[in-house]
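$ fold --in a.seq
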Amino acid sequence: MSSSAFPTVPASADVVIIGGGVMGVSIAFHLAEAGVTNIVVVERGDLGRGSSGKPIGGVRAQFSDPLNIELGSRSLRAFEEFPHRPGADIRFDTVGYLFLLDSERQVSDFAAGVGLQNSLDVPSRIIGPEEAQRLCPYLSTDGLVAAAYSPADGHARPGLVVQGYAAAAARAGVTIATRTAVRGMDTAGDRVVGVHTSHGRIACSAVICAAGAWSARIGDMAGVRLPVRPVKRQLAFTAPLAPPAPRIPFTIDFSSTAYFHNSDDGLLLGLADPGQAEGFDTTWTPAWLELFRTAARHRAPALADMETAGGWAGLYEVTPDHNALIGRSGELPNFLYAAGFSGHGFLQAPAVGEVVRDLYLEREPFTDVSPLSADRFHRGAEIRPEAHVV
């Protein structure tokens, strides 16, 4: 559904959701399923063209923080059930996640994570270099101490997830206004009472910010501090491989952050450039590939010289502790937010949709997300850094 069908937006709504990525449409779906249907999702471009536009999204429950484990694990179950609820093929492939570890310190840290994950019913385990190489034949075991592996993890297609949630929400009566930019907000007392868009004003009873890397700007419009910074991340695709690549886990060399996994008729290659400046630029610059090739020469030599056939750049939405912001504003109680997922938004979106639904309905969510309140950075609360970040 596009804004061409809506030369003006509806004059009023119970809820305005800002952001038509995977988080916004998951929240819309879960609210509509609970009977809240007077909802407008406002998206400045087309659905899923921001951080959700990445070609393949990893999904995992291997984290060091129990809250992230719970959000990831519950979302994994939702991805498994996606063909039935909301009803769409998202090409979910449980190939597993394989973290490659090259120091005893890494092994110790990941072993602690595995213990916590196992206590929350995640079937992860520490394995030796030889088993890691059997799972992923591209690996060189030189310098490899161990690996952390969970067979329940995998990857799916974010675009298909966005479309699946959006279609189900629209069927339930949700208005999805694409190519509609948010220009400002009206507040009265401790309430947001209206959202100004490029296609008109929407009077509203509540606003939910799910604007990804742009969330700080949306928060500023309402006077709510959301410390989210945009950082470009890039990936590349190999040319078609013959013979085809073996089916391998989503494999990550933890020290270098180089990662790779199957993608259609080849492999997808990625790496987090430590020198990448902050900003909204999403120009794909092939020069970063040399960083990947350098890491691959050591850890997966056959990948180092593979021919590539283009790539893609998108934005991580990063917070100071690499954990999400989920909650309700203390100053404006009808302003809720789900942002700053630091690369984990896609894989946590189904569970976060449930949580935000419950926060809006003032019900108890399945897990306590109060530690993820945006207030934690200026009220002296304990910061919960996530160790398993790529």
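$ fold --in b.seq
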Amino acid sequence: MTSSLRPQDHEGGTRAGGMPLPPAVETADPPAAGTPPKEAAPAAGKRAKASPGRDPFFDNAKYLAILFVAMGHSWEPLTDHSRAAEALYMVVYTFHMPAFIVISGYFSRSFDMRPDRLKRLITGVAVPYVLFEVAYTFFKRWADDDPQQPISLLDPWYLTWFLAALFVWRMSTPLWKVVRWPLPLALAVAVLASVSPDIGDDLDLQRVLQFLPFFVAGLLMKPEHFRQLRGRKLRLLSLPVLACGAAVAYWAAPRMNSAWFYHRDSAQELGAPWWAGAVMTLALFGCSAVLTACFLVWVPRRHMWFTVLGAGTLYGYLLHGFLAKGSRFWGWFDTYAWLKEPYGEVFVTLVAAVVVTALCTPPVQRAFKFAMEPKMNWAFAKDPAEQARRRSATR
């Protein structure tokens, strides 16, 4: 979703080549160990548009996922009035953030405590977190007429939770590389978090722990796992699965609290018995894994017109939040009642898609690079080992 999801850019190649993930955000690790293998070489005309060493599949996946993120936020005010909107909302929330987080984990496989990677983690995740936490706070003070809204770096507001979580997940990567059963352990941690109402809001720790299994799953994935998610048969098989998911969501819409999909509260805080936290955590992990696979099956493997936008998903993710929240603060959905009609819902969906697409474009990336991918060489001590590597590379 951001440069933290980029192969060696925020996560890999160039530093933020593919937006972390979301990003959320691209914090790719050095290309040597974190960049996924390339697919078949694209046509010469299209190759020039892509960053070297980047796999278009992941950029396509990140762009399409950010579309669903923005559309999901636009549907939120409609869910109280439309059962169909609530069902779509549930389906999308089942897989859009898990998909981002799995990709983030995949591009974090080579992360260690090497100085250059720690610097990228700070400049590509920690610094944007601080800047946007402050920016969102001042925006809320102005747009919501709430001058008392405090600046709290320990209590992420709105979309910044993902950056806080990504920082914690990535720092924990070395641990998951040495334990024997990383995914079962991560699931156990998520289950324990879901039944622990005293965790509190610091760094949105509930989300950090409850979404943790998806990050660990990404760490465990190999290029061949993604290559297996292709083929006409799998696409055809995904259709009844998606249809079944939509039908279940339509049935559950008036019966189920959609807050379960946010993974930000314990079972007790949602008014459920403690054991429901364990059941829902495991059930939602299974559902999310299946629907994420169905989503990835449909992601194009070749260069598309939107492939270049995959490198700017962190920009789209963080910047569209101002409009998404502003629409609530300014009461647009109450003032313009037609937005809650079926044609209004379609209009809102299209606007969300267009806006987030525009925010992922290269001009926007250049304009906000100072906040999303600051170089900040002045803030770090010189690393002798890195200097030696650079000198040897130039010889």
